[in-house]
Amino acid sequence: MYKTKTVDLQEAKYKFIQEWGVLGSSWGINRAMAQIHALLMLAPESKTTDEVMEELKISRGNANMNMRALIDWGLVFKEYKPGERKEYFYAEKDLWNVMKQIAKERRKREIVPIRDVLAEVSEAELGNSPEGKEFKKVTKDIDSIISKFDGFIDMAAKSDQNWFLKVLSKLVK
């Protein structure tokens, strides 16, 4: 059981944003990018870059660069409000969609490149030396595992949340 203490909204928000920032490095993004994402997920309404900068105490360059990256990842969206000249940003709030987007982006940035390299080296003339045989065996094993993992990510990204959670719970039992 987790120990809890009573905290106010600002402290709770700060703690969540900080922890989401740490978690972000697990998915291959920097801390500031993840913190911006957390701030926008928690916000009841879209925010301007200035508001993000002020709340997170980050520079305009840092805010702009990371906001663009979050848009590229499909986790944050831009909107314009009638009569306003500023851009407003909001985050995807459905956690299932967030996780699917992260999985798709990680696949694109991590799995696809290594699979391309494995496909390329599998065509290499390796000869029959022990070193060549070992190289072929190891790269084939790596490709096999990555291929299964890739299929799992693809299945999860295309599935609906309830179906996926049922399958996952059966695997965990």
Overall 3D geometry? elongated
CATH topology of the largest domain: Arc Repressor Mutant, subunit A
The order of strands across the largest sheet is: 1-2
Structural class: mainly alpha
Largest sheet composition: 2 strands, antiparallel
Give the SSE string. HHHHEEHHH
Stretches where pLDDT is under 50 for at least 5 consecutive residues are none
- The CATH superfamily of the largest domain is Winged helix-like DNA-binding domain superfamily/Winged helix DNA-binding domain
List the helices and strands and how they pair.
Elements (H helix, E strand, L loop, with lengths): L8 H16 L6 H12 L6 H8 L3 H14 L2 E5 L6 E5 L3 H28 L7 H29 L2 H12 L1
Antiparallel strand pairs: 1-2
Helix pairs in contact: 1-2, 2-4, 3-4, 5-6
Structural descriptors:
2 domains, mainly alpha, 7 helices, Arc Repressor Mutant, subunit A, two-stranded antiparallel sheet, 173 residues
